[in-house]
Design goal:
Elements (H helix, E strand, L loop, with lengths): L24 E10 L6 H12 L9 H26 L6 H17 L4 E8 L4 H10 L2 E8 L9 H12 L7 E4 L7 H18 L4 E7 L3 H5 L4 H16 L6 E6 L12 H10 L4 E5 L8 H17 L4 E4 L7 H14 L7
Parallel strand pairs: 1-2, 1-3, 3-4, 5-6, 5-7, 7-8
Helix pairs in contact: 1-2, 2-10, 3-11, 6-8, 6-11, 9-10
Length: 346
């Protein structure tokens, strides 16, 4: 009976091919969360279905979660499409466009040392498709760099799953390294601080600076997720670098869903409270996001600005993410060089 090979690999890696390890290229795979293809309910439905089906994101028993998910997918795509439409550009999704620009700039910085590719954990291009492209190009050493400075099982952990699911299907998987987090990396902290200082130089300084991170359920932290501690560490290092105290630089968490408690204080409640306490001008930065996206451009710069104004504040100013700035490119290149030490070219 014929044997069906369930492993895959490049066709030019057969027995007659003399592959010299030293001549093979290093690959750097950047991975971001993902985005729908269009700001429409039709495009949002499969994207949200993939995202909300991930056990790393929602860990409820499937028998309990599937009926809830069906209800969500009947209602939420239209609401989410409206939010995406508010920030969509002629070039497409900001997260996709800015991530591509960052990957291209990092490729220029690492040219001659590594081949850089960009994948999305949900939506396209997938992690599996990009690893296949790198493998076909001769990459035998792969460094995976999730664009999440702070580790969470819901984000970086899910990327690990996607990479593992791909590699276990390969006949000849590449040598693998992965950047777990870079929340307290000195070069990254300096890039964040410089971004904030330059923005203040150009726009003036608000009365307080709020750092808003994406939230996760409190229960996940109790189960061992280090995300809260790493967000607090990022905030502490930025306070020290900017010369601010805890009353001047605050920490909050956004984007909660569902009824169970998420990490607190909540961003929407915090901006309302600050406005009620007489703060008229509030600056907000989101150091958990490598590039601007729905959560920064719509949730913070639009929604939470409206909350702040309605509660009596004068202005909420969002400080843009690092995006493809030279500082971010330099900080990621430094991460790559450090984690790739010992590989040819590094």
């Amino acid at each position: 009976m014929p044997q069906h090979d369930h492993y895959t690999g490049p066709s030019d890696h057969g027995p007659d091919r003399n592959v010299q390890a030293g001549a093979c290229e290093t690959g750097v795979l950047l991975v971001n969360l993902g985005t729908p293809d269009a700001p429409t309910p039709r495009a949002l439905r499969p994207y949200l279905a993939q995202f909300l089906s991930d056990r790393r994101v929602i860990d409820y028993p499937r028998w309990l979660w599937w009926p809830i998910l069906r209800v969500i997918l009947a209602i939420r795509p239209r609401r989410s499409a409206h939010a995406y439409a508010r920030i969509w550009t002629e070039a497409g999704s900001p997260l996709r466009v800015l991530s591509e620009a960052l990957a291209a700039a990092l490729q220029d910085e690492l040219r001659g040392h590594a081949r850089v590719a960009l994948a999305m954990r949900y939506g396209a291009p997938s992690v599996g498709s990009k690893i296949a492209e790198l493998q076909a190009a001769g990459v035998r050493r792969l460094l995976v760099l999730p664009l999440y400075p702070q580790y969470s099982a819901t984000s970086t952990g899910s990327v690990v799953d996607a990479v593992a699911d791909t590699l276990k299907r390969l006949r000849w998987p590449p040598e693998l390294r992965l950047v777990n987090d870079y929340h307290d990396d000195p070069v990254h902290i300096e890039a964040l601080a410089s971004r904030i200082e330059r923005w203040w130089d150009a726009n003036g300084r608000g009365e307080k600076l709020l750092l808003s991170f994406h939230g996760i359920p409190e229960r996940y932290v109790r189960l061992g997720d280090p995300y809260l501690a790493q967000c607090q560490a990022t905030a502490a290092r930025l306070r020290a670098r900017l010369g601010l105290d805890e009353s001047q630089l605050l920490l909050s968490f956004q984007s909660r869903v569902g009824r169970e408690p998420w990490l607190q204080p909540y961003t929407d409640a915090t901006v309302r409270r600050l406005a009620g306490e007489g703060i008229r001008r509030l600056d907000v930065a989101c150091p958990g996001f490598a590039v601007d996206c729905l959560e920064t451009l719509e949730e913070i710069a639009m929604q939470n600005r409206e909350f702040f104004l309605a509660a009596g504040g004068h202005d909420l100013r969002y400080i843009p993410a690092l995006n493809d700035s030279p500082e971010q490119v330099a900080s990621l290149a430094a991460l790559v060089r450090r984690h790739a030490q010992g590989w040819p070219g590094f």
